[in-house]
Amino acid sequence: MTDRFDVVVVGGGIVGLATARALQIARPGIAIALLEKEPALAAHQTGRNSGVLHSGLYYRPGSLKARLCVEGRRRMLAFCEEEGLPVRISGKLVVAVSDAEIARLEGLCERGAANGVEGIGRLGPSGIADHEPHAAGVAGLWVPSTGVVDFGGVARRLGQILADRGASILTGCEVDRIETRSGGVVVGAGERTIAARALVNAAGLHADRVAAMSGVDPPVRIVPFRGEYHVLSAQAAGLVGGLIYPVPDPRFPFLGVHFTRRIDGSVEVGPNAVLALGREHYRGTRADWAGLTEVLGYRGFRRLAARHAVPGLGEMLRSRSRALYAREARRLVPAIRSGDLDRGGSGIRAQAVFPNGQLADDFVIAGEGPLIHVLSAPSPAATAALVIGEHLAGLVILRLDGGSD
Question: What kind and span of H or E run contains 77?
């Protein structure tokens, strides 16, 4: 038997859920099936991040990330308040620890202003101490609009709203075949077959594989990087009041170790970024050697690795040494000691990489016929999820109405 819907969404993370909700709002009564291979929603990137509600400071002006982040933050904040979900707007301190970083700090300030981030303040050493007494640096930026939420909780609430309004939320339902046909698409998941007029692939860590399953040659491949967190001990947690970030180095692909006081009051340190031995290779789980072989065989990864071999080695060493991890953290908060760090959780970043070794630093959305593939949804995807969902829903509606994008 084949179940029939208007739209099938693959992936039960926050982007897929927000897209389904935006479709319900735009087209009341629309028949939606959301397929998630895990037994629960938000099992991967959505449920394993720091929960930072980003302001839009870092993103290239004019990029889709920049355009969606500021409005996405406002909408996510309103959603949390309406639904009674916890949120804390604590502000973020970005610290330059040397004179060499001041020019990059000024560049961040200009980017934030260009992106419409309000209230950014330049700080000297005394201003840094006013906001975070235990942080140290030669200059800083104060970004009052940054905060934290529980994105896993947001996702679960979206799932409940969807189900209450008639959507079919199918967990434990792993897609294993996709066939496009005249008038739509047929999706298989084990013994289940689902027909729909349009499909949204929001499968995150497996988005490129789902795209390939549908016959699309994706322009990027997912390379999984594991981010490993530590948590400040109860005795050291008072060293951090909110969020303390470094100035990003444009030579390196990832931000570096930083501090986040989470919605539950704990203080996370990290994450670092090391190549994961599989797309779901979290701390304490088995390596996926076939998945690693796939990554190593991809020329885009080999070119990326050659370009960033030195910082990549540093990340690997910090992954193995709490003392080295603490030394990196002390750049921002000098009082941190290795004994202050308790091992925390880990997450996998679905980093999209082009064949030339360049990282996809913006959203990558591809579509053909009834298919829409979200091939790259990097941070601030969780912050901007509600407006990303509206953007994707608009593309779906064009297809349902017989138009094109």
Answer: helix 64-83
